[in-house]
Amino acid sequence: MDQDKLRMLLEHLQHGKTDIEEVMERLKDLPYEDIGFAKVDNHRELRNGFAEVIYCAGKTPTQVQGIVQVMRRDGASILGTRASKELFKSVRAIAPEAVYYEDARCIVIDPKKKKQEEPLIAVVCAGTSDIPVAEEAAVTAETFGYPVDRIYDVGVAGLHRLLGEMPRLRQADVVIVIAGMEGALVSVVGGLVDRPVIAVPTSVGYGTSFHGITALLAMLNSCASGVTVVNIDNGFGAAYSACLMLKMNERRINH
């Protein structure tokens, strides 16, 4: 249950449109619901601003279905990450409105309504091989209601490609930069924009990239100020952080 729904429920109680028994019934599963193999955190959106996200890898179809059923009943926007096509089929059997994003490996049900105006998140990736991680970031941000500008294949091997996209980069409020190999793209972008930059190293690269370790260390040692680094291939974590930054700013403006 998100803050708007809880506020509406309490307002209905205040104005006599509902009674205490109904309110107690609606709130009985807060802060979580124990379904045996999982404790679904129904209170997550009230605490953190966004509903719990289902990490699908390692879970059985039955387990994911059970979690989806609880969250769907509560009206939450549902995002499942690292999901296979086969797992998506099992989810769609109980939630026909579910959508699968193959590149991102994400399942989305009832995403938040997209904000038509800024703030905007730019998702930038160095090469086409980085697109799966970039799409995980983009789909996560869009599920949480934030518009995304995808700027792909602009790595430092052809720096002119990035420079040609500078007007789009400067329109963004937060920039997520995704790169493998030596991870140099984030330092270049961080030196060109006055926005928060969130760096995502990917496991793309030849032998001495060490499955993303080289890019991770390079990003942690970036000489560009204002760069924050998340874990290897963690497009979801980068987008989540970007959305929290924007939500906090919105809260200050609205108050």
TrEMBL record:
The PurE domain, residue ranges: 119-254
Protein name in the entry: NCAIR mutase (PurE)-related protein
Native organism: Sporolactobacillus spathodeae
